[in-house]
Every structure is written in structure tokens, then in C-alpha cells.
Amino acid sequence: MFTKVHEDKVIALGGTIPLDGRVSWVPAGATGFQPSNCYLLSEGSGRLLVDTGLAVHSQEILDDLVELLDDDGRLSMFFTRSEMDCVSNLEPIAGKFDIERLFTGGAINPFDAFDDLSRLALRGRRQQIDQKGEGGDSMARTPEIEVAPGRHLTIESPLLRLLPTFWGWDANTGTIFTSDTFTHGTMTSPDGSRIIDSLSQDTTTAKQVAEHLYAKYEWIPRATCEPLREWLSDKFETLAPETIAPSRGCVIRGRELIRRHLDFMLAALAPEKA
Q1: Could you tell me the superkingdom of the organism this chain comes from (predicted)?
Q2: DSSP-assigned letters across all residues of 90-119
Q3: Does residue 255 have a pLDDT over 90?
Q4: pTM of the predicted model, to two decimals?
């Protein structure tokens, strides 16, 4: 079941994952449920899907797209990372809908994820977002993606990453798509809200944020992270987002909540001061 993050302009799709000890990207002992997210951006007749979610949620995502897309079923895609939690549903979505444009980055070819012949058509619609110059099926770096006239998703390349990773900034809705960062928000039940939007009801702790961050970036406690702190602080001060939309974990909405979670993240990036 999809969730409206910002009216009809940003909609979260995907399911939830039980945190029962079998998920490698969360800290040991984590409990509850974690949302797995992809996001449909809509403006007029323009449709852009940010990531495609986990394969285990394929049918849920397809059903939601059938309901949400116009009759022509056309949309574009943007991958924040070339990892399976982002690209797994490329094949079933491309098999059902008309993919106009596909924005990707990094050296990993997203078409390696499936063998369908439709990949040949998709290769011609792929636009590289992180390489300068031309060659192969790479194009000049795309600094922003047009969702529709007057609405663009600006591409950001974060300092905090392992593989090539890209964030998206939607100034129209004040939403920043942070891929595999800010993934610490969990739910106590699978039918709970996938959005944290109440300061008084937010139970997130600094310890929880740090543990989730270190589960993915295990080197942080041993590293000097001041450049990462400065970049993150400057980025959030410049953009002043109203919503954080990660590829995993709860959406965080509201500037007071974002300030709180950003402070937790900055503290986690300074473990020597804790």
C-alpha cells in the first residue's frame, strides 16, 4: 500500500522487512520492521520513479504503479545506487510499463540484473549521471532530471558513501532523497506509519542512529569524519529540507524532526567526542 509523502507529488511505495536477525544492513539486535522504499514523483503528466525497491515487494509495487500511473503507463527512473535494493524491480517494471528515460551512475551496469530482451531498448534510453565526456552508453553528467516543466530533481553526490551513490533534491516539495543514509527509522508493526512526523512521538535515540549508521559504514568509529560532518551540515543548512526520504527506513518529515535527526547523525560522525 502506497503512502503519500507530499500530497500526490511524492508517494512512497514498497513493503516492510521484519528485523529478525536475517537482515545484514541493520545492527545486531535490531527489532521491529523496516520500510523498504521507492518513490514516485508526479507533476502533470511527468512521472519519475526514484529506485525500484526490493524484489520481495515486486507485486506490491507493480500493483501500486498500475493504480497511480496514467493510462499510457509511461515513467522515467532514477537509481540512487546500483545495488539490488535499488534496481531489483527494474525487469518487472520495464516489462509492464513504458520506460522513457533511465538515469544511472557508477560503473556497474544495471542491466546485468536481468536477461530480458527489453534491456536492448532500455540501453538507448539510459543517461549517465556521474561521468564527464562521452563513450559507450555514457553521456555527459546530468546535474538534474526534469520531472516536468518547472520541476526538477537536482542530483547530489554525497561524501558519505561506499559505492557510487547519488542523492536527489526536489526543491518543489522540499524533499531530499538520501539513498542508504538516514535509514535508522523503524516501525513497531508492519502496518504502522512509514513516516515519522511527530516530534512528541518520535522515539528515535542517538544510539539507534549511530548503530544503524555503523552497520553500513563500519569504519566510521575508526575514521576522522570532520569533512563528512561539514559536508552534511552545510548541505542541510543550504537546502533546508522539509522531508528526508531514504531508500530504507522511515521517512522523516518536518524541520524540527529533521534538525533532531541531523544532530543525531552529526554526533554519530564524531564518535571520538561521544
Answers
A1: Bacteria
A2: HHHHHHHSEEEEEEE-SSS-GGGG---THH
A3: yes
A4: 0.90
